[in-house]
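Dear support,

We are seeing what looks like truncated structure output for some complexes. This example has two components. We would appreciate it if you could run it in full and send us the complete token output so we can diff it against ours.
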Amino acid sequence: MRLQAASVKLGYGDRTIVDGLDLGVETGTVTTIIGPNGCGKSTLLRALGRLLKPQGGEVLLDGKRIDRTPTREVAKILGVLPQAPAAPEGLTVADLVARGRHPHQTWYRQWSSDDEAAVADALAMTDLTDLAERPLDELSGGQRQRAWLSMALAQGTDLLLLDEPTTFLDLAHQVEVLELVRHLHQRAGRTIVMVLHDLNLAARYADRLVAMRDGRVIASGAPHEVLTEDLVREVFDLDAKVIEDPVAGTPLVIPIGPHRRRPAPDHLVKGP
Amino acid sequence: MTTITLRIAALSWRLRPRGVLVTVGGVLLLGLLMALNMRLGDIRLSVPEVIAATFDPSSAAHFVVMELRLPRALTGALVGAALALSGAIIQSIARNPLASPEILGVTNGASVLVVAGVVASGSAYGGASGLLSTLGIPALSLLGGLIGGALVYGLAWRRGLDGYRLVLVGIGVTAVFTNVKFWLLTVGDVNDTGRAMVWISGSLNGRGWEHVQPVALALAVLLPLTLLGTRSLDALRYGDDTVTALGVRTNLSRTLMILAAVLLAAVATASAGPIAFVALAAPQIALRLARSGQPPLLSSAAVGAVLTTGADLIARTAFPLELPVGIVTAVLGAPYLIHLIWRARK
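Here is the complete output from our reference environment:
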């Protein structure tokens, strides 16, 4: 276990969002954190990626406190893709991806052959080689998110944290990005932790699910162990049926609401 | 953006040809302007006369060139470079082309203390000349600039440094300083305020080697340091989370760069008064000439030096009565900047 949070207390100013949470990220897996809005899942991810300093407890990377390890050294091991990241205007895809090499560069080593190779690899793996010289603002939402993933990939880290990598994307692009994440995991053997909103996609693309509510971990484990009807009720206050996804065989959550239900078959309604 | 890569064994550098061109061109133009500055004035000198005056202490024009024109021209060039460098850093960090050392409270902090010193030492109120004569105008200016910069920085800090908040706090503090300055000018003796007004416009008149030295020292130390910070400055254009994830200590980088900008602007202002517009226009001119994403530091410094030296040459020789250089920099720089922006729009 290379990355773990030990009884961390997280929050902004006086507002505590997470209090006393423990979480270990299993190396070599894709872990997805799920939970309702405001449950602290993004906050936890930010703390794991040392973007937020814990108010208590500690985050450990390779056994050392992450906030006491030089941030540049951390950046060579751990990559973070923030939610809805912002890039300066007029940037090309190649510029953005090259930025991922920042932690490996110094004023006397500004663009080594390693940098060049890593960027070429990252572009190829995200299928962006042909778009490398295109301005970022000309790309579709899915392509742009791929470019950001490519940047995180060029950073060459073993661990990768993705904060809602599919927000603002339509379904087809969501699948495209998650397929890519899976591909990176398999091809490059990266350990990936991400936050997702869509339970069904989370179940399909993750090896492990972590379900959170009110700053606490309610359950964690393989998707079919975690994603049950009871858990959905406990975490989301939602009645649901959980069936097997006919495509992937993973759990599929069907919400149950008072409206829009299938009419009962005729013979049950008429009676004798 | 086109760049060329220079590799020697494990070392590598990335250069932007246009940026190099602007810097080299600027330095060459600066050399030309400096030479003209040595020749022109009340006593016109030929090139051989200038050369003779430079190397021969017994020559008739030695005093004019070595004690009057050269230190004045050097002060102008160095002050222009320092102000432009300061402006380039502040504009990058504030992500705002309208930001300048003025926004950071440096210029007006200096003005307030200088005006206060001049007014207080004057005859009107019995004179507190002790204060001014011990400290002198440059020291008062330096102190005021640093106080102003520290005040804006301190008020803008809130669990980190944000470009927008820096600009807003800076505008507020500047407004207060400006009004204190005007109040002092109103209550002061007419003769004293007259002297203060000349300083406020920014003037290179009568600048000697003692004005060259502090700016030269500040640039010699801070220019290399800020150039080392260029990579961080460039990375800071991205969102804070992204940059932090890339291993940049965002608040530390911003703080160090702003500290450098405040020192450069305060020292420059102490030597020549608040020369208007250089810190604002030079980085934007350099950015457009070099076609880069944000103001290039070295090119900005070169453009700033050229702008100030050229403006002082005009201020000194083109009119029957000598003008303060600060007035000419604005008159010269503004149309050129507008021209560049207008051309880019097409």
